[in-house]
Amino acid sequence: MKKPAPFLVGLAVVIALVVAGCSSGSKAVPPVYTTQAASTQTAYDVEKGYPPTPAVPPATTAPAIRNSYGLNIGSGETPAQYVISPQSPVERMVVKTGNMQVVVKDVTSAMDKVAQIATTVGGYVVSAQKWKEGEKVAGSISIRVPSSRYDETIVNIRNLATDVLNENTASQDVTQEYVDLGSRLKNLEATEVQLLKIMESATKTEDILAVQRELTSVRGDIEQTKGRMLYLEQTSAMSLITVQFSEAQLVVKINANKARVKTGEEIAFNAEIAGGFAPYSYEWNFGDGETSNQKSPVHFYREAGTYTVSLTVTDDKGYNNTETRKDYIVVAGGWGPGATVASAWNGFLTFGRVILNILIWLGIFSPVWLITGGLIAWGIYRRRRKAGV
Q1: C-alpha distances out from residue 289 to 284, 285, 305, 324, 368, Å
Q2: How far, rounded to the nearest angstrom, does the alpha carbon of residue 89 sit from its chain's CA centroid?
Q3: Please, what is the end-to-end C-alpha distance for the chain in angstroms?
Q4: How many structural domains are present in the chain?
Q5: Same domain assignment for residues 182 and 163
Q6: 189 and 199 share a domain?
Q7: Does some domain include residue 312?
Q8: C-alpha to C-alpha distances, 35 to 215, 230, 251, nearest whole angstrom
Q9: Max alpha carbon distance in the chain (Å)?
Q10: Beta 238-247 vs 94-104: how paired, if at all?
Q11: Are residues 64 and 103 in the same domain?
Q12: Same domain for 359 and 221?
C-alpha cells in the first residue's frame, strides 16, 4: 500500500488547524463583506464596519498594527506575538448611543450649534436633515463625539433646548466579543503562516492551487475579523448621538365656516395652532366690540358692515403669537319690520315715478297722438262713404 505524500499530510494538518482555530471563539462573527479577488479593493466604511479586501501578501511583508488592547491586528509576526496575557487587565469597551427629542426656538440655528458642539469636542456630523410639518420646521441630526466627552455634549445640547421631551442613553459592552475576535485572529494568523510554509515546499500545480484556495479563505477571514475589531474600537471610542428638533414658535391661523353672512347669522370660528407647548389660551376679537376665550367660538353680528378678526394665542411657557385677518367678515342687512316698510315705501315711490313718467310722455306727445288719431278716423270715414255704408 502506497504511503500518502508528506505534503498532503501537512495540508490535512493545516486544514484541521483552521477548523480548530475558527471554532475556538465563544461568539460567532457574522460576515461583514463578500471576499473578492486578491487584486480587488473595496470602499472602506467605518460606520458599517466594511474593510477593504487587499491582495494576499506574504505574512513577512504585512505591516504590524498593535491596538490599545494588547492585540497585534497586523500580520508578519510569529503566532507567539499575538498571545494576550491572562493577567493583563483589559480596558472595558462600551458602545454608547444617545437619543434626544428637544424643542427649540429656531430649528436651523439649533442644528448649526449642535454641529459646532460636535466639532469642538473632536467629533463630526454623521447626517442631518430638515423638513416641514404644516407651518413649522422640524429636523434631525446625528453626531459622533469622543466617548470621554459624551456627558459634556449631552449637557451642551440640553442647554440649547427650550424643553427636552425625551432623552435616553443605551450602552453595550463589547469587551468579550473583542477578546474573542483577538483569539480568532491569532489562530487565523498562525494558520496563514503554516500555509505559506507549505506553499514554499509544494511542487505540483494541483497542490499549489489547493493551498492558494486555503490561503485566500484564511486571508478573507483575517480581514473580516480585523475589520470587525476596528469597527468595535471606533464605535466604542466615538459615541453616537441623534437629536430630533421641533420648533417652540407658535403658528396661529384663523378659519371661519363662512365669511359672507347677514345680520344675526351665526359664524363658527376655529383656531389652527402649531408649535409651542400645550395647553393654550385664546383671546378672540371679532371687530364689533365682542371677544371670546374659546378655541372654536360661535359669533353673530348685529349690524351690517365689514369686520376685522384677530386671535392671540398664549402657550404654557408664556410664548404668544397673534393672527389678524383684515376685513375678513362681510355682513349684509337682514330682515326686520323697519327694513320691510322702508323697502315697500321705496317700491311704491318707484312705481309712482314710473306712472308719472308715462303721463308726462303722453302729455308732451299729445298733439302727435291727436293728429295721428284724426287722420286714422278720416281714413276710415272715407272708406265707408265709398262703400255706401
Answers
A1: 10, 7, 13, 15, 65
A2: 44
A3: 166
A4: 4
A5: no
A6: yes
A7: yes
A8: 12, 18, 55
A9: 167
A10: parallel
A11: no
A12: no
Q: For position 257, what pLDDT does the model report?
A: 93
CA 286 to chain centre: 39
Q: How far apart are CA 250 and CA 155, in angstroms?
A: 26
Range of the domain at 215: 6-71+174-235
Instruction: Based on the fold, state whether residues 168 and 98 are members of the same structural domain.
Output: yes
Question: What's the CA gap between 276 and 279, in Å, rounded?
Answer: 9
Task: State which amino acid sits at residue 73.
Answer: I
Distance (Å, whole) CA 36 – CA 53: 7
Tell me whether residue 77 is in a domain. no
The three grid cell numbers given for residue 201, joined into one nine-digit string: 515546499
DSSP 7-71: HHHHHHHHHHHHHHHHT-SSS-----S----TT--PPPBTTTTB--------TTTSPP-B-TTS-
The verdict on residue 350 lying in a domain is yes
pLDDT at 71: 38
- Do 283 and 305 lie in one domain? The reply is yes
269-305 burial by CB neighbour count: b if 16+ within 10 A, else e? bebebebbbeebebebbbbbeeebeebebebbbeeee
Residues 138 and 158 in one domain: yes
Residue 128 lies in a domain: yes
Whole-angstrom distance, CA of residue 389 vs CA of residue 272: 94
Residue where a domain terminates, one of 312, 332, 352: 332
Per-10-residue mean pLDDT for the chain, 389 residues long?
Answer: 49 52 42 34 39 40 37 38 42 87 89 94 93 81 93 94 89 86 91 88 86 90 91 86 87 91 91 82 94 93 93 86 93 65 68 81 74 79 72
Q: Taking the CB of residue 71, how many other CB atoms lie within 10 A of it?
A: 22
Residue with grid cell 376685513, as numbered in its chain? 327
